[in-house]
Amino acid sequence: MLFDAHAVTLSPSEQFVIDLAIVSVAIASLLFTDSKLKSKNPGIIFTIIVILAVSGRLLLDPIPNVQPVTFLAIMVGIYFGISYSIVFATIVTLSSNVMLEHGIWSNYQIIAWASIGILAALLRGQFIHNNKLNITNVAIFAAFSGFMFDWIVSLSILHNVDTSFFLIYLLNGVPFDLLHAGGNVVFVAWLANPLSELMDRHTSLTSPEVVPELASN
Amino acid sequence: MSNLIMLSAIVVIVTILSYFAVNEKNRLKSTSVVFVSMLLVTFGTISEELGEITTELVQDDGDAHYGLPSSWNVTQVVCFHFSSESSPEGFDQGRHHIDTSGSTIFVDDNWENGNVTGACIGGFEGYDNGLDLLYAAVNVSGESFSLNTTDFGPDFGLMIDSIGGVSPCDVYTCTDSSGAYWELLNDGAYSMVGISDLVLNDDTVITWQIATW
Q1: pLDDT tens, residue by residue, B140-198
Q2: CA distance B155 to B134
Q3: CB of B135 within 8 A of CB of B172?
Q4: Of all helices (H) and strands (E), which one includes residue A15?
Q5: Could you give the CA distance from residue B182 to residue B199 in angstroms, rounded to a whole number?
Q6: Distance CA B36, CA B14 (A)
Q7: CA-to-CA distance for B74 and B41, rounded, in angstroms?
Q8: ipTM over 0.85 threshold
Q9: In this complex, which of B35, B36, B50 lies closest to A171 when CB atoms are compared?
Q10: Residues with Cβ < 8 Å from A2, sequence gap 6 or more?
């Protein structure tokens, strides 16, 4: 006798709890995977972070505007730099929008996340002090990034709507902006430290370089 | 407006209390979680209240979009009208304006002096056929305006038996000589064709309301 698991339906709350559990397992797996890597592997870590961003965005879709991509874009910017930020933004947006729907807004999402990563890379000195992440500064930037991302993506409506509606549209989006900003700060508060230690081990950002020195007479 | 201020104050106060309730090491963690949680709980109400403050409605009663948000002017809209005594659950007061993501952006409690309730789902684009637009609107609303239909074939088309569980003969007494039906209006005027054959414009407003014969 066969049972069709697809016949089981979950309420939105039940689905959300399961999605949150899956995201938590994915994050924990990432942190434990690090101990298995014998040497620096920035490429592998970057790939894992991209996968985490895509899956986190999809699984947390039920919560309006709360997703880990912006936070991860900031971390990629700080630890991997400008070019990786652009690659990250492009891959994550295009991959996750296969499920969430592509449109003219996809271009704006790429621009927004890439801009956030680039800004984080340029402001790296404000976020790293004594080889450690300054959580307060990152949290402030993450909150600001929530609003920045939403306002950049909101520009996409100007393709269909008169500019006179833009301010009203932004005003109506304030609750979404606050959720995005708050969600980013949650991710920073809980994940920034463990993730920064992991990324620090596998990138060259803060590691001292050994240089040859001639012995003096 | 007062509800918005009160809710915002509650969110801020609880967040501040959570900040001081824990030790310094865990303040950011707990405060951020409490803030996001409070915002999620109050999100629907805050969005609605903000929508009521910021939404501009079309004032020209000769315009097919009369009473609808101005931002829907060049988009397609589907409206469902009920009497306040017979309406789907949650729609017994005011006319709700729902965008294509399913969010209620505004509730007009003064629509038709409160005698007519229901919802308008708008912001759609690119639909050429009335039935496709209708199904899209029903999908956005979830189960609220689910349809029961009878298909009379290619010659006579589809008849709407109930919307949101409301049948016309539940509202009016139907006999052999009189009855009620779901009437289709196209841009405010009685439609000369059924929903399956209705050709849409970029800013068509489809309205369903119960009429008697």
Answers
A1: 888 789 999 998 888 778 889 999 999 998 888 888 888 889 999 999 999 999 899 99
A2: 20
A3: no
A4: helix A12-33
A5: 19
A6: 11
A7: 33
A8: no
A9: B50
A10: none
Residue of A nearest to B39 (CA): A179
Q: Which residue of B has its CA nearest to A193?
A: B29
CB pair distance less than 8 Å for B46 and A175: yes
Q: What is the pLDDT of residue B67?
A: 86
Identify which of A64, A135, A179 has the shortest CB distance to residue B28.
A135
Tell me how far apart the alpha carbons of residues A109 and A113 are, in angstroms, rounded to a whole number.
Answer: 6
User: Mean pLDDT, consecutive 10-residue segments, chain A of 217 residues?
Assistant: 58 72 72 61 85 90 89 95 95 90 89 97 92 92 96 85 75 90 95 88 57 51
- List CB contacts of A189: < 8 A, sequence separation 6 or more: A135, A139, B28, B29, B32, B33
User: Which of A186, A187, A188, A191 to mutate against chain B (most B CBs within 10 Å)?
Assistant: A186
Do strands B95-98 and A128-129 pair parallel, antiparallel, or not at all (unpaired)? unpaired
Residues of chain B positioned with their CB less than 8 A from the CB of A136: 28
Domains, chain A, in order of start with CATH, read 12-202 (1.10.1760)
Yes or no, beta carbons of B46 and A182 under 8 Å apart: no
